[in-house]
Amino acid sequence: MIQRIQSIYLSLTFLLSLLFLKVSFLTFLESSGSVLKITFSGLIRDISMQNHELIEKIIPLSAVIILISAISLVTIFLFKKREIQLRLAKLLIAVVCGFILLCGYYSYNVIEKFDAELVFGYKMLLPILILVLSVLGHRGINKDNQLVKSYDRLR
Predict the structure, then answer these.
(1) Which end of the chain lies in a sparser environment, N or C, as judged by fewer CB atoms within 10 Å?
(2) Rg (CA), the chain
(3) Domains of the chain by residue range
(4) For 21, what's the count of Cα atoms within 13 Å in the CB-facing half-sphere?
(5) Distance CA 130, CA 73 (A)
(6) Three-class DSSP category at 148
(7) What is the value of pTM for the model shown?
């Protein structure tokens, strides 16, 4: 049944992870006044409104973003195989936690390397929101699994 609540949670996880492909999710302000951004492409320095300089590619972060969206999409469509869906939901939670840790690691490196300070914004909360939605999706799958098992006991 694709109309279940966990499908909505996992769809939102998928859509929010796709959002990371287009926007910068961490922004830093250098002491010289230029702006550094961590995007899907890597670490970018905004010289002016039109000029962008790619400083460094961050391949692990990009790979994790793609992995999050792929796992959440596959998990949605495995609704007939709840055990596999449960395992994939646990894997999704682990990958999202890894993504949050990677964001923290690269933030620390940028702050140390470029003498920059982190600019707080709503985009910083998106990984936490993805984690919450993934946990809610896992709980929904687990509830469905328990419900089906209880019906099997009644037969």
Answers:
(1) C
(2) 19
(3) 5-149
(4) 11
(5) 13
(6) helix
(7) 0.92
pLDDT in tens, 63-110: 999 999 999 999 999 988 989 999 999 999 999 999 999 999 999 999
Which position has the higher pLDDT, 4 or 53? Answer: 53
Residue with tokens 């469905």: 144
Q: Which amino acid is at 24?
A: S
Candidates 23, 26, 45; CA nearest to 104 is 26
Percentage of the chain with pLDDT > 90?
Answer: 75
Residue at 35: amino acid letter: V
Three-state helix/strand/coil letters over 95-113: HHHHHHHHHHHHHHHHHHH
40: CB partners within 8 A, 6+ apart: 20, 21, 22, 61, 62, 65
Question: What token pair was written down for 54?
Answer: 């790619």
The set of residues, in sequence order, having a beta carbon less than 8 Å from that of 82 and lying 6+ positions away, is: 141, 144, 145, 148
Query: What 3-state class would DSSP assign to 64?
Result: helix
